[in-house]
């Protein structure tokens, strides 16, 4: 089997995990779409490789996958999810004792909004690039700390740089954070379906439904996180302005057998509570 992947170190590590779980597969490096600056460029090249027959499946970070699936493709499997939390790399053992006025490197509006809601004294600074690039910029003093995904650092065997994982009740992760998606053509998912982890799949479906219901995308200041607690599916949501001044949070429990209905209902409740207006303001000031 051939698996399409981006060529970054993290993408290759993630696709390598899937290849091993499939008993060995060839990795096919797909070109990143350079005709746009939005985050969807990370998935289009991989999707094109699958649709054109260069590979039978493609692997994505679930948080990069648009809410509307590309025609002809399906989510064939969601492997067992990694740690979904955000990681703080820098001084401190928790957000409460981070030095006052610290410069925090992140380009994520979601992280910026939640960080400033808790610690308005901190100074977010734009710090772009892959994991290694951001770590080098931190070492060079371009920021005092940075926030990255725990899952990506774990998959790159760089968990040693993590000062602490930010608790879920302080920073709601992006929809799909920590999860991988194995994508294939419709009707061609039988082989990779064996990799599917049902609980992880249901969590992702709930999160994606909430994002779609809010009319958001992977660049919006929105956090959605679903998890199983006993026989219930618990979904947390956050929508806020980038300056941390205004936000809406909500939590909903539901039947894990109907994850998309739970996610859609959370989105409806949050919209009624003001999330739609916040997203409109966030778009207007972006």
User: Which sequence of SSEs, written as H and E, runs from N to C?
Assistant: EHEHEEEEHEHEHEEHEEEHH
- What coarse outline follows from CA principal-axis ratios? globular
CATH class category name of the largest domain: Alpha Beta
Task: Give start-end ranges of low-pLDDT stretches.
Answer: none
Number of beta strands? 13
Gyration radius, in Å: 18 Å
**Measured distance between first and last alpha carbons:** 42 Å
- The CATH homologous superfamily name of the largest domain equals Periplasmic binding protein-like II
- Tell me the fraction of residues in β-strands, as a range: 15-25%
The class by helix and strand makeup works out as alpha/beta
The largest sheet is:
5 strands, mixed
- Rounded average pLDDT: 94
Provide the domain count.
3
CATH topology of the largest domain: D-Maltodextrin-Binding Protein, domain 2
The CATH architecture classification of the largest domain is: 3-Layer(aba) Sandwich
Short description:
This protein is an alpha/beta fold. It is built from 8 helices and 13 strands.
